[in-house]
Fold this sequence. Notes:
Elements: H1 4-10, H2 16-21, E1 30-32, E2 38-40, H3 42-46, E3 55-61, H4 71-84, E4 89-93, H5 98-102, E5 110-111, E6 114-117, H6 119-123, H7 129-149, E7 156-161, E8 165-167, E9 177-179, E10 190-192, E11 194-196, H8 201-208, H9 212-221, E12 223-227, E13 232-234, H10 235-238, H11 241-247, E14 255-259, E15 264-267, H12 282-291, E16 294-298, H13 303-318, E17 324-329, H14 331-337, H15 350-356, H16 358-368, E18 374-379, H17 386-397, E19 402-406, H18 408-411, H19 417-429, H20 444-456, E20 460-463, H21 465-476, E21 484-487, E22 507-516, E23 521-526, E24 545-546, E25 552-553
Parallel strand pairs: 3-16, 3-17, 4-15, 4-16, 8-11, 17-18, 18-19, 20-22, 21-23
Antiparallel strand pairs: 1-2, 2-14, 5-6, 6-14, 7-12, 9-10, 12-13, 14-15, 22-23, 24-25
Helix pairs in contact: 4-19, 7-8, 7-11, 9-11, 14-15
Amino acid sequence: MKSDIEIAQEAVMLPITEVAQSLDIPAEELELYGRSKAKLSEEFLAGLKDRPEGKLILVTAINPTPAGEGKTTVTVGLGQAFGKLGKKAVIALREPSLGPCFGIKGGAAGGGNSQVVPMEDLNLHFTGDFHAITSANNLLAAMIDNHIQQGNALRIDTRQIIWKRAMDMNDRALRNIVVGMGSKADGFVREDHFVITVASEIMAILCLATDMKDLKERLGRILVAYDLDGNPVTAQQIGAVGSMAALLKDAIKPNLVQTLEHTPALVHGGPFANIAHGCNSVRATKAALKMADYCITEAGFGADLGAEKFFDIKCRQAGLKPGAVVLVATIRALKYNGGVPKTELGSENLEALERGIVNLGKHIENLGKYGVPVVVALNAFVSDTQAEMDFVRNYCESRGSEFALAKVWEKGGEGGTELAEKVLYALEHKTSQFHPLYEDSLPLRDKIRKLAQEIYGADDVEYEGSASKKLQKLVDLGYDHLPVCVAKTQYSLSDDPSLLGRPQGFKMHVRDVYVSAGAGFVVVLTGDIMTMPGLPKSPAALRIDVDESGKITGLF
């Protein structure tokens, strides 16, 4: 059996100019990055505003397990399947981070015969967007320290600097550091921290900004520190907005690539859903809606994280109205939720499936709270039995969800036509009455409690003393109207990764709270979630190599 990278390397890609032609994009409106990648010009994007919008489809999943779910693979395969049915569709995805690529997860370009290519470029440096975001983040950090060194006219309290440095790599040693050591000329000694680039507020801002003007306004609102009187200090006051925007000038433009079957894909931005808002850029999604009849996008990790933030943050801010949502599951993952060890998932076990399917049921229930029709996609494995597939089908249909098998890893678009037809049926015969879970006017504490109780299934929320004080300060500063972005483990509906299935009888533990004022949401850190991951005992980096001809191996 060929690996994902072998399949991708054997693919025959069209010149990106030909892919653009299928969307009526003139060659002169592309900014080429070689033969297979391009950015869309600002002039082209501006010209899309008067076109009608297509229909928006979100792909999400149950909570991830070591058994795998294949959400991106299904997203890509669904887009290819729309093409097989003669429908004009564009896929809108996030860019992969180098952190998981060299850590534990590997690449994020789909898999099998449902991949976005060039796979190696996409998973590595791509068009440099992440590097630009990292540079802008760290320029602001350097300017804060320089402001303090040069006299500290803003009277910044060096004990209350919120802004952290960033790096797009898993490096636990950088979570907590000390800067300014050395001579007087080396700055003031203080504690500092790093986040992974996908958790940087600059990433969130880039993904939520509608244009350069909006980008600069958001950059200016970033809260970087408090002064000695407890008043907020912003990036605008530091004077960093113009230079940060200059670094992001090209990064703000969506990237155009293709799938193995030449379906157009806009891949842009990449915040994680467990520590950030988990969606690709608003610009890419809106452009895709204007360029095709259907835009198929995905949100990170399970529906309790990615889909919730897609609905409550991205759709709220951008005015998006999804027509349908695809919920990806596998029988293997459901049996894992039912207590079956990873080594035994290939054997039929209807009892374990019945125990574990409550995880899928909770996600179906949650998605129904947003008023959007649900289609369950069962990502098929050769070990699945007919009895197991029938059990899942009956379970979903009894709860009002459409159901389809997806065999897109094996068969590409052809293996996704059943799913595509069910999605089209949902779009045409079921009415989406999308609405966020909560209103802007709901107090922050009540928003957090509503998410904890209605989406995660918690009994209540408990706060560490410092977190409760920080939350009250944000209320006092006027941030009470903002939506909430919960940083939480992806492996469980709760904030405890060991609680599988549908946990009940627990309290969500909040250990920190801060505002991303430029992005426009309040971040709530729960459990043991880290904004700078570490490498595992055996990182994927140990298996990645490149030969003398430049051929990369070990990516997956």
